Amino acid sequence: MYQIVILSSSIRKGRDSHRAALYLAKFFNQQNEIKAELLDLQAYNFPLFNERLRFLENPDQQVIEFAEKIKNADAIIIVTPEYNGGYPASLKNVVDLLYDEWKNKPIAFCTCSSGNYAGTQVLVQMQSIFLKIGALIVPSTLPIAQVQNTFSENGELVETGLLEGRTQKYYKDIINYIERFN
């Protein structure tokens, strides 16, 4: 059974991208070969880190547990909104906190926006950052436009159709990457 971590990166009130993270957690947990765990950065309430984990003198137990979950996952799905053409500071904070934990790890992206562009600007930035630190970028992406109209607050798909097929392909590509590189 493959362990996948779905990282919900927004910590804002009323965040709509978290709906997509909930949807993906449900979808992946319905697959026979997957155990998906949703890590919600809002629940962690991490401080602003000024150093990588391996250099912190007394890291909080919650930070160590978070790092272990990332390290032990077979793949990571990062769900991120696009804020002003970029990603949230909460995501940058944990990306820079870890290093070895991301290396050679299959990373897939689900980008969200309230507009029509589906987070395409943030996607390019995230791919670049994770390539730089040695992660394995899953070529398949799941950009979601009008995220607030796509899912209910608890992550249920409001409108069935194209997204279900795109999610199925996304899932298959992630599994392919896990099998190819693990």
UniProtKB/TrEMBL annotation:
EC code(s) of this entry: 1.-.-.-
NADPH-dependent FMN reductase-like domain segment(s): 3-146
GO molecular function terms attached to this record: oxidoreductase activity
Stretch forming the signal peptide: none
Keywords: Oxidoreductase
Top-level EC class as recorded in UniProt: oxidoreductase
Organism domain of life: Bacteria
Name used for this protein in its record: NAD(P)H-dependent oxidoreductase
